[in-house]
Amino acid sequence: MHRDNAAEQPVKCLVWDLDNTLWQGTLLEEDEVRLAPEVLRTITELDARGILQAVASKNDHDHAWAKLEQLGVAEYFVLPRIGWGPKSKSVREIADRLNFAPGTVAFIDDQPFERAEVEHELPEVRTYPAEQATLLTGLPEFSPGTVTVDSTRRRSMYQASFRRDAERSDFTGPDADFLRSLDIRMRISRATPLELSRVEELTLRTSQMNATGVHYSEDELRALIDDPDHEVLVTTMTDRFGPYGAVGVVLLRRGPEAWRIRLLATSCRVVSLGAGTVLLHWLTDQAHRAGVHLGADFRATERNRMMEVAYRFAGFTDDPCPCQDASAATGAIGRLHLVPSPRPAPDTLRLEAPDLAPDRRRPAQDPERTP
Fold first, then answer.
1. Residue 256's closest CA among 367, 359, 371?
2. What's the rounded Cα separation, in Å, for the pair 34 and 195?
């Protein structure tokens, strides 16, 4: 069933049934099932657009997975759930493991009963009959406005994260020691015009670690880059398992008495690495060195409780301060405040970041224009 909110929420993950949906035939009855070329094109195109794909099938796991490998498509699927339980349970597990809201997950199956069962248990999940498999790439919810470098490698980054998580579960030492073993490198840099599509995607796709939930378009971001009072900062990370891609964005307004974090958003994929805390500590230390207070816009949503906790642990409060400028947030967006103090460099990763000190950002004033 196609939901009315499809255009509002892009699909982040499509969960496939196998028999008579992904392939033609029933595996337990006829081993020689067939993968239609048109379905293969759908799989590869969705993958290229950065839409993850998974499997929820009632089948023998080893037999079905071997068939996916034989057909040459096993690599395209993360988190396969192949067994005999309810499809809704499998879809829920996939969404939870990916940390995706159910409204960003879709399910395709040839059986009306299976689709109805998922719709009943997970009403936010969009469902599609198997005959629509070759039409999905033409639907707006499967058509992101921009496809970035990170989009094209999203599947491989998630697969690397699962390998990382598996190693972590086997690690017997403290969490901090495990993080050090990853050789994590975090880079904060000023966004360039070529990176704006990635930054826009972060403001659109992140929800749990997003301080306001406000989406900034590429044109709005470009205007902020050109504004000398604003910083548009993008964070990337990598470790020995590979790149995480762009994982964070900060929109910062700098005033003479106070800096204002208009937006802080980080990918949920790097929550366990403490990326949000590192960003907040770095901003706090930079503000302390510049001798200014630090404000932060915040709007509570159903999913960003972790972001509020991060701000509170960093020392931000609701206490008002005269440093807050006339452009203070209004409506549902509130303002948090912090009097900065020095913060130590992180000891679980290597951080490369610019110096935001005012006297190092702008060129020296023209002597002829000095009053």
1. 359
2. 41
Which residues touch 61 (CB under 8 Å, ≥6 apart)?
80, 82, 83
Q: Alpha carbon of 136 to those of 42, 132, 341: distances in Å?
A: 7, 6, 52
Measured CA to CA, the distance from residue 307 to residue 311 in angstroms comes to 6
- Look up residue 356 and give its DSSP letter: -
Residue 327 reports pLDDT greater than 70: no
Please report how many Cα atoms fall inside a 13 Å half-sphere around the Cα of residue 331, on the Cβ side.
4
What mean pLDDT is predicted for residues 349-368?
A: 65
DSSP classification of residue 252: E
Beginning with the edge strand found earlier in the chain, give each strand of the sheet holding 185-190 in spatial order.
Answer: 334-338, 293-298, 258-266, 242-254, 230-239, 185-190, 350-352
Token code pair at residue 313: 């642990």
DSSP string, 7-27: TTS--SEEEEPTBTTTBBS-T
Q: Per the structure block, which two tokens stand in for 126?
A: 């969009």
Residue 180 sits at φ, ψ, to 5 deg, of -65, -35
**Alpha-carbon distances, residue 42 vs 3, 38, 260, 303 (angstroms):** 20, 6, 44, 31
Work out the number of other CB atoms within 10 angstroms of the CB of residue 154: 21
CA–CA distance, 326 with 270 (Å, rounded to integer): 34
State the DSSP string of 173-201.
Answer: S-HHHHHHHTT-EEEEEEPPGGGHHHHHH
Overall average pLDDT of the 135-142 stretch? 95
Helix axes 275-290, 305-313, angle to 10 degrees: 40
Chain centroid to Cα 224, Å, comes to 22
Closest by CA position to 252, among listed 226, 222, 278, 283:
283
- Entry pTM: 0.69
- In this prediction, residues 131-135 reach a mean pLDDT of 96
DSSP 205-228: H--TTBSS-----HHHHHHHHH-T
pLDDT band at 364 (very low <50, low <70, confident <90, very high): very low
Rg of the chain (C-alpha set): 23
- Residue 261 has, within 13 A of its CA and on its CB side, a CA count of 30
What angle in degrees, to the nearest 10, is found between the helix axes of 87-98 and 112-121?
Answer: 50
Euclidean distance between CA atoms 205 and 297, whole angstroms:
19
